[in-house]
Design goal:
Order of helices and strands: EHEEHEEEHEEEHHE
Number of strands: 10
CATH class of the largest domain: Alpha Beta
Largest sheet: 10 strands, mixed
Low-confidence stretches: 179-190
CATH superfamily of the largest domain: Pseudouridine synthase I, catalytic domain, C-terminal subdomain
Radius of gyration: 19 Å
CATH topology of the largest domain: Alpha-Beta Plaits
Mean pLDDT: 92
Length: 260
């Protein structure tokens, strides 16, 4: 039995998230169907993280085992011929025996994209959260500094996923503005009709359920001038989800990198 590691990019718009669900179209089911057709085995894949409905990935990592004798490069080409156009295998390699896409993760990086301005971007609506109120990205960046480090992030966790601890270490949390381009998509730049894109980058040793989206929702309140820059730090100390801002919608979220 051989172990394989795939790196995928996908547009999550038309899927009910990563994980298999009855009577729903999911990314996991789509990939497993394509693999089964190619290697003539029933394959179960494990992803580094279960992205929610509407969430995208620039570099999702997936592991699986198979008896196939196909070279990884052949497997990659075969998968890309079978997968739908909103999902692609960027890389396929043979992994060390026992490779597990979740257990070996050291760090993950997510990117959340916001668009502000008086006119909604029709073409970017599936990849960014629009704010009619201009965002003060500098204030958001300063406010985010309080969340860097090792903390109890229970104020930014949505109930529904059992965890042994809500303590996580955030290595980086930054907010920056792009000049008229949609920054999450590599090598793609286009003019926005009425505003600019703001990117929130967060890297940590792990994430709680909806943690990134809750942090973004909190920082947006600062960016819109509804809350002061000290507020996210106060929310963190409260250890109470009710103290934080709303959960940002899924379409602006991208899994950007997984480090082992």
């Amino acid at each position: 039995m051989r172990s394989f590691k795939l790196t995928l990019a996908y547009d999550g718009t038309n899927y009910s998230g990563w994980q298999t669900q009855p009577a729903r179209v999911t990314l996991q089911d789509t990939l497993e169907r394509a693999l089964r057709k190619i290697v003539s085995e029933k394959i179960r894949v494990v992803a580094s993280g279960r992205t929610d409905a509407g969430v995208h990935a620039l570099a999702q990592v997936v592991g699986f085992q198979s008896q196939t004798q196909l070279d990884p490069s052949v497997l990659q080409r075969a998968l890309n011929s079978e997968l739908p156009s909103d999902m692609v295998v960027l890389e396929a390699v043979e992994a060390p025996s026992g490779f597990h896409a979740i257990a070996g993760v050291r760090r993950k990086r997510y990117r959340y994209v916001l668009h502000d301005g008086p006119i909604r971007d029709v073409f970017g609506r599936q990849y960014a959260w629009h704010s009619y109120i201009p965002l003060d990205d500098s204030a958001m960046h300063r406010a985010a500094a309080a969340l860097v480090g090792t903390h109890d992030f229970s104020s930014f966790e949505t109930a529904g996923s059992e965890r042994q601890t809500s303590v996580r270490t955030v290595f980086e949390l930054s907010v920056s503005r792009g000049q008229g381009s949609i920054s999450p998509l590599p090598h793609v730049a286009r003019q926005s009709p009425g505003g600019e894109f703001v990117s929130v980058e967060i890297e940590a040793d792990g994430f709680l359920y909806n943690m990134v989206r809750a942090i973004v929702g909190t920082l947006v309140e600062v960016g819109q001038g509804r809350r002061g820059e000290a507020w996210p730090g106060e929310v963190l100390k409260a250890c109470d989800r009710q103290a934080a801002g709303r959960t940002a919608p899924p379409q602006g979220l991208f899994l950007a990198q997984v480090e082992y």
